[in-house]
Amino acid sequence: MIPVLTAPTASGSVGVVPNEVLRRALSEAKLTERQLAEKVGVAPETISRWISEDRLPYPRLRWAAAEHLGVDEVSLWPAAARAALKIGPDREVVSVYPTRSAMPRTVRQRMVDNASRELTFVVFTGYSLWADIPAFSATLRAKAEAGARVRFVLGDPDSELARLTEQAEGTPLTLAARIGHTVHELEPLRDVVEVRQTFLCWGKGVTRCDDEAILTVSVLGRTGTDAPRLHLRRRQAGGLFDQMAVRHVDALWEAAAPVWP
Predict the structure, then answer these.
(1) Using CA atoms, how far apart are residues 223 and 251, in angstroms rounded to an integer?
(2) What would the pLDDT profile of 150-196 be if each residue is shown by its tens digit?
(3) Is 201 in contact with 122 (CB distance < 8 Å)?
C-alpha cells in the first residue's frame, strides 16, 4: 500500500497530499505555496487545494505553474495532459505569450541553464538578455567551454531598416545604442562566442537552447517588450521548430557578417 503523505498547507494545517509530485516540485524549486500563488496570480489557498485535494487548475494556470517550477505540465497533471494531447503540428507549441512581460523569466533562464549542445540567440538588439538572465556572460562562457556552440545574430545598426524602425518606435534609447550595448557585453566572450550581424533578423527573433526555442514576432512601431512569444519544443522532423529554430536561423547565419575579424 502507498503511504499517505502529509504536508503543511498555506493555512498551516496538515492534510493529505494526493498530488505529491506538485508538492515535491515546490520543494525542489525552493518555493512556498504562497510564493507560487503570487507568481501564478491566485490565492495561496488555491495552491493548497491543488496539492491536498488534487484539484485541476485551468490550462493557463497549469502552464504558468509548470513554467515557474521548471517542470513539465505532464508530470504535474498527467491526466489533464493526456486529455489535451496534441497529435498535429501544433504539438510543438508549449506556450504562447502576448508580450515579454507575460512570459515568466524562468522560462528562458531554465532553457539556458539546461542547454548543453547549442545556444543560439537571434535578436535584433539583445538588450534585455543580461537583465533577464542572472550571470548571463559567465553562463555563456561555461557552456561554451563545456563544448556547446554559442552564437548570436544581431541587427545591423547602420541599416536603413534600423533607421526606419527607430522612427516608428520613437523611443529615446536608439536601436544602435541597444545593439552597441550587446556587442560591448559580448566583447569579453569573443574567444568562445560567435557573433554576426544582419538587418534580416528584424521581426522574427529566435532563442534556441538545444531542442527548445522561443520565437519572437515583432510588432511594427512597438519595442521588443510588446512582441508576442511562442515557446517551442521539438517533437517531430520538419515541424515548426525545425522551420524556425533550424532552417530560419541557419539561413540568417549564412547571410550575416562577422562582427569581429
Answers:
(1) 24
(2) 999 999 988 888 788 777 777 766 888 889 999 999 999 999 999 99
(3) yes
Strand partners for 213: 208, 232
Q: Which domains does the chain have, with CATH numbers?
A: 6-85 (1.10.260.40), 92-258 (3.30.870.10)
Can you tell me the distance from the alpha carbon of 248 to that of 230, in angstroms, rounded to the nearest whole number?
15
Phi-psi region of 95 (alpha: psi -120 to 50; beta: other; left: phi over 0): beta
Burial class (CB in 10 A: 0-12, 13-18, 19+), 241: buried
Can you tell me the distance from the alpha carbon of 50 to that of 58, in angstroms, rounded to the nearest whole number?
11
Q: 223 with 173: CB under 8 angstroms?
A: no
CB 206 within 8 A of CB 69: no
Nearest to 114 by CA among 191, 213, 187: 213
Q: Which residues fall within 8 angstroms of residue 198, CB to CB, at 6 or more apart?
A: 153, 155, 156, 252, 255, 256, 257
pLDDT given at position 174: 81
Best CA proximity match to 7, nearest among 40, 66, 50, 37: 50
| Residue 125, all three cell numbers | 538588439
Find all residues with CB under 8 Å of 172, minimum gap 6, and list them.
Answer: none
User: Which residue shows C-alpha cell 522532423?
Assistant: 237
Residue count of the chain: 261
The number of CA neighbours under 13 Å toward the Cβ of 85 is 7
The CA distance from 144 to 136, in Å, is 12
pTM: 0.69
